[in-house]
Amino acid sequence: MMPTIDLSWVRDQFPGLHHQQNGNSVAFFDGPAGSQVPRSVADAVSRYLLETNSQHGGVFEVSRESDAILERGHQALADFLGARDPGCIAFGANMTTLTFAVSRAIARTWQPGDEVIVTRLDHEGNVSPWVLAARDAGAVIKRVEVNLEDGTLDQQSFLDALSPRTKLVAVGLASNITGTINPVRSMIRAAHDVGALTYVDAVHFAPHGLVDVMDLETDFLVCSAYKFFGPHLGVLYGKRSHLEELQPYKLRVATNDLPGKWMTGTACHEGIAGALACVDYLAALGRRLGSPVESRRGAIESAMGAIQQYEQQLARRMLTGLAALPEFQLWGIRDLHRLDERVPTFSITHPRHSPQEMAAHLATVGCYAWAGNHYALSFSEAAGLEPNGTLRIGLLHYNSADEVDRVLAELSRLA
Ligand SMILES: Cc1ncc(COP(=O)(O)O)c(C=O)c1O
Fold it and tell me: Of 30, 35, 94, 95, which is best to mutate to test ligand 1, by the most ligand atoms within 8 angstroms of its C-beta?
């Protein structure tokens, strides 16, 4: 049996979790919007600024030290994503900014009439950049439909959308509104079969399970460190051949080498130092479960396996509790036998209380959740949930069973 995570050790690492409101502890269910960070991440950001703050490429000692940290940051994120080559990892302001840059570069290769596939389950960050780039290139956008009853992607509609003219498929690894884990591996295979590139949004999935770009064989993948216990920073992986061949919009003085070619202007060095520390936090969590000599990637694999197992226990508790509150409609997979098809992100609506009212009520009792469409606009539209969207209760591995019971009790009071 897989060893389970030591929740009290985990919670000790996150000072933000000990926040009090009116003398009571608060419970953070806003992980899908952004996670809390371990103390080691904040320390790494602070240490970078206080001890090694410098610009890239100087001939003096502090700049060299700073560059060494940046290099370790690329290696850490390569380990986190399962990439063998740290040169294939670029950092940017956030996922959205990176996606605009990549979409603009890829769209330079499109011809009028070429086709691009996006989905109705994705966050706008993986939709709008492609729609706008397609418009500029005269390419056609096709959309994968959703099954509203369980919040999954309609695979037949995906297969129907594919054609020899498909140039790119943009899809999320997990939905930030329904929590669905999409069958991205098989979608990538099908996309490659028609010669299309794939762009995977792993922002929502990354804190919940192991990302493996080699196994996925995706051409590109993006995530955001602030969702997996790091600072506000976006991360791009691309296959080396694509990153070398494609031409991003860039200054003529800027490097053509990887990964700098894809990192416009001066990077957020302190953020990269923090991202390195958040990967090391996950590795430390993994090492507590497994062999102390494991490689960092091995330790991350252990950590993510244990996180997934623990989060499924929380998801079971949440779904069981919600089943006993039938006034609430859950948008996503409810079936306890399908827990490996979802992450513990729960979107609910109520016939009398708007998501905004429910979030405001929960906030007064120290339960921090989010209301709205969460930028998963196409799903919210397809489900007829606009303009209010859903109340989203998101769990991460630092949440406890008591916190799940606490939010369920508050929902029960509301109902
Ligand atoms: C699934 C998903 N994709 C993309 C984004 C956008 O990420 P960023 O804020 O890094 O641009 C988010 C942010 O909430 C998200 O949840």
Answer: 95
> Under DSSP, is residue 393 helix (H, G, I), strand (E, B) or coil?
strand
Residue nearest to atom 7 of ligand 1 (CA): 95
Residue the block writes with tokens 């691309």 = 238
Q: What is the pLDDT along the chain (415 residues), one digit of tens a residue?
A: 667 899 999 999 999 999 999 999 999 999 999 999 999 999 999 999 999 999 999 999 999 999 999 999 999 999 999 999 999 999 999 999 999 999 999 999 999 999 999 999 999 999 999 999 999 999 999 999 999 999 999 999 999 999 999 999 999 999 999 999 999 999 999 999 999 999 999 999 999 999 999 999 999 999 999 999 999 999 999 999 999 999 999 999 999 999 999 999 999 999 999 999 999 999 999 999 987 778 999 999 999 999 999 999 999 999 999 999 999 999 999 999 999 999 999 999 999 999 999 999 999 999 999 999 999 999 999 999 999 999 999 999 999 999 999 999 999 999 8
374 Cα: distance to centroid of ligand 1 (angstroms): 9
Residue to mutate, 124, 200, 224, 396, ligand 1, most ligand atoms under 8 Å from C-beta: 224
Distance from Cα 125 to the centre of ligand 1, integer Å: 6
The count of domains in the chain is: 2
Distance of CA 91 from the midpoint of ligand 1 (Å):
15
Q: From the centroid of its chain, how far is CA 116?
A: 22
CA distance 184 to 75: 25
Is the domain of 218 the same as that of 240? yes
Q: Which of 194, 124, 183 is nearest to 160 (CA)?
A: 194
Domain-embedded: residue 288: no
Rounded Cα distance, 310 and 307, in Å: 5
At 388, the amino acid letter reads N
Residue 288: strand, helix, or coil? helix
Q: What is the CATH number of the domain that holds 315?
A: 3.90.1150.10
User: The domain containing residue 348 runs over which residues?
Assistant: 7-37+297-414
- 270 and 360 in a single domain? The answer is no
Q: Which residues line ligand 1 (CB under 6 A)?
A: 94-96, 123, 125-126, 172, 176, 201, 203-204, 224, 234
Residue 292, domain member (yes or no): no
pTM of the model: 0.98
Q: How far is the CA of 325 from the centre of ligand 1 (A)?
A: 30
Residue 412 Cα, ligand 1 centroid: separation in angstroms? 30
Note whether 367 and 407 are within 8 A (CB): yes
